[in-house]
Design goal:
Layout lengths: L8 H26 L4 E11 L3 H4 L6 E11 L3 E8 H12 L11 H26 L3 E3 L3 E6 H12 L5 E11 L2 E11 L1 H11 L3
Antiparallel strand pairs: 1-6, 2-3, 2-4, 2-5, 3-7, 6-7
Helix pairs in contact: 1-4
C-alpha cells in the first residue's frame, strides 16, 4: 500500500511564502484594474486530499463559483479559485465598488469579472512559484462555472485527465477598507509535479 503523502512544516512555510508573494502581486494588479486599493492576504495554507475539496468549501451540493486555470510546462496541474455563492456576490460588489449586499444575481458581465479576478490571482501565484523554483510554467485562459462544487471539480478533473491526489489550499482574503471577502485557492499539481516543486524549492 502506498504511503500517504504529507508535507512538513518547512515545506508548508516555503509554499506559504510563495503564496504571500503571489497574493501581493495579484493585489497590485487587481487594484490597478478597479482603480482602488485592494489587499489580498493568505491567512492559512494547508495540504489536503483532492476528494476533500468539495466539503472544505462547504456543502458539495451548494452553488459555487469556480474559476479554473490549467497549468503546463515543467509541471502540470491546475488551480481552482472557489467562491461559495454568497462570497461570489460579495466579490462582485467589491470589484464594482458597491456596498455589500447590492448584487443579488450573477450576470454574464459579473462572470467575466470573477474570471478576471481569479485569473489574476492564479497567474500571480504561478509567477511567484516559477521565479522561486526556477520553473517554466504556462497557464491557460480561465474557465468559469457556477454549479455544485463537487460536480464542477469532478467534471474538470475528468475532462483534462488530471492525475492528482492532493491539493495545496491557500485560504485567501480580499480586503478593501472595512470590507472583506474570503475565498479558497486550490493548487492541484499532478502526483509527480509536487515532488519537482519541493525539490526545486530546496525543501524536503
Amino acid at each position: 500500500m502506498k504511503k500517504e503523502m504529507e508535507l512538513n512544516e518547512i515545506q508548508l512555510d516555503a509554499l506559504k511564502e510563495v503564496a504571500n508573494i503571489g497574493a501581493g502581486h495579484a493585489a497590485t494588479a487587481l487594484s490597478h484594474l478597479v482603480d482602488r486599493k485592494i489587499l489580498i492576504t493568505v491567512p492559512k495554507l494547508d495540504f489536503v486530499r483532492i476528494e476533500e475539496i468539495p466539503t472544505i468549501t462547504g456543502n458539495p451540493e451548494d452553488l459555487t463559483a469556480v474559476i479554473y486555470t490549467h497549468i503546463i510546462g515543467d509541471i502540470t496541474g491546475g488551480i481552482f479559485f472557489i467562491l461559495p455563492r454568497d462570497s461570489a456576490l460579495l466579490m462582485i460588489d467589491l470589484l464594482k465598488g458597491y456596498n455589500f449586499g447590492i448584487t443579488k444575481i450573477i450576470s454574464g458581465l459579473d462572470e467575466e469579472m470573477l474570471k478576471q479576478a481569479g485569473g489574476l490571482l492564479a497567474k500571480a501565484y504561478l509567477s511567484a512559484l516559477a521565479r522561486f523554483a526556477k520553473l517554466t510554467l504556462v497557464s491557460s485562459s480561465e474557465s468559469f462555472a457556477f454549479d455544485m462544487v463537487g460536480a464542477v471539480i469532478d467534471s474538470i478533473i475528468a475532462d483534462i485527465d488530471l492525475r492528482a491526489q492532493h491539493a495545496i489550499l491557500a485560504e485567501t482574503e480580499f480586503v478593501e477598507a472595512e470590507n472583506k471577502v474570503s475565498g479558497q485557492l486550490f493548487f492541484v499539481p499532478d502526483f509527480r509535479s509536487l515532488e519537482v516543486i519541493m525539490d526545486k524549492l530546496g525543501v524536503k
